[in-house]
Design a protein that fits this description.
The structure is a single chain. This protein is of the alpha/beta class and 341 residues long. Strands 8, 9, 10, 11, 12 and 13 form a six-stranded mixed sheet that branches. 33% of the residues lie in helices and 17% in strands.
Length: 341
């Protein structure tokens, strides 16, 4: 279970009775052919892709109307898919209209938003886009991220879905899978934009590997809400697994919650673990240092006292362009930190 689920994010009904009736007509219009034939034919011939559920998606032609979870859209954009994504869902824009951190470099104004928060997915609007393909992450086996359970059946009737595993495996794996999906969708894997990003990522990874050998710093990946403090497990989160492979020394929670991604602590017990650096979840649904200043146990944490807090993109976009800055940021935090725990 991802931390976003544990936070007090509201769910809401997606369809009124009238809306449901309208949706029925749209489903009938789209038929049950998996969305094939909805896109253009510039790909030439049939198209297929096997996702991480081992499900083979077969269409009459390359998808031209793609709807994707925003982090998936951002990753595909980094790999060169710039025009086919016509709809997105998940945390795309902030209240002021600016792109959410999870949108990365994706031009959010070029795609229709189907919902910006957990539980929101406008099914009627989705159907109106005549989708060829739906793409999302899969943090747990078979769990389609940010697709609401109460409307999942209706959503999956409209177009086939490709799910990419993004949890319980090293970050390199979903990066490679998104690269493969982008290539299948028509992107050029040898484009300078892509090769430059990969070179930057590989250089950053090697620098981090060398840094942790000379800087013996303990890092705690964590997230905060009004009621709970979450200590993330570096054995389950894809990015933390990869950083651990490079040698980063993370706090390992003793009693992870059911989903395995983190151990949730009441604020009275938030100082259970100690570290030199806090790797703090920077998603918009989480609390940041300014908002946490009133929490007594927050102020007691050694890293907080030392001012050694660095942002953590706990739902990274799985591309070389998206991951390289994350590696560089963690490296700098470790380089600049003093041993205080």
């Amino acid at each position: 279970m991802r931390q976003a689920r544990a936070l007090p994010l509201s769910r809401r009904g997606l369809l009124t009775a009238g809306g449901a009736l309208g949706l029925g007509a749209l489903v009938t219009a789209c038929g049950d052919n998996g969305g094939s034939g909805s896109g253009g034919h510039d790909g030439g011939g049939s198209w297929s892709f096997t996702d991480d559920r081992k499900k083979k998606i077969s269409l009459d032609s390359r998808p031209q109307h793609i709807v994707a979870y925003i982090a998936a859209a951002a990753a595909l954009y980094d790999f060169g898919i710039e025009k086919q994504i016509t709809g997105v869902f998940g945390p795309t824009t902030l209240k002021n209209g600016k792109p959410d951190v999870q949108a990365g470099d994706f031009p959010v104004d070029q795609a229709t938003s189907l919902g910006n928060t957990w539980g929101q997915f406008n099914v009627e609007k989705y159907a109106s886009l005549s989708p060829d393909l739906l793409i999302t992450n899969m943090y747990d086996p078979g769990a389609l991220f940010y697709i609401p359970d109460d409307s999942k059946k209706k959503i999956l009737q409209l177009a086939p879905c490709a799910a990419i595993s993004t949890g319980r495996i090293s970050m390199l794996e979903p990066i490679k899978r998104y690269a493969a999906l982008a290539e299948a969708l028509g992107a050029d894997p040898k484009a300078k934009k892509v090769t430059d990003a990969k070179a930057r990522f590989e250089k950053a990874a090697e620098t981090l590997r060398k840094t942790v050998k000379s800087h013996k710093i303990k890092v705690m990946a964590c997230s905060a809400s009004a009621d709970l403090f979450y200590v993330s497990d570096p054995k389950v989160n894809a990015d933390l697994i990869y950083f651990s492979e490079l040698g980063v020394d993370f706090v390992i929670p003793e009693k992870p919650d059911k989903g395995g991604y983190f151990e949730s602590l009441s604020w009275e017990n938030a100082d259970k673990y100690d570290a030199d650096v806090l790797f703090l979840d920077n998603r918009t649904a989480t609390l940041q240092p300014k908002a946490l200043a009133s929490k007594p146990t927050w102020s007691k944490l050694t890293a907080v006292k030392a001012g050694q807090i660095t942002p953590w993109s706990s739902e990274p976009r799985f591309s070389y362009a998206g991951a390289a800055p994350l590696v560089e940021s963690l490296t700098k935090a470790i380089q600049d930190a003093k041993k205080v725990s």
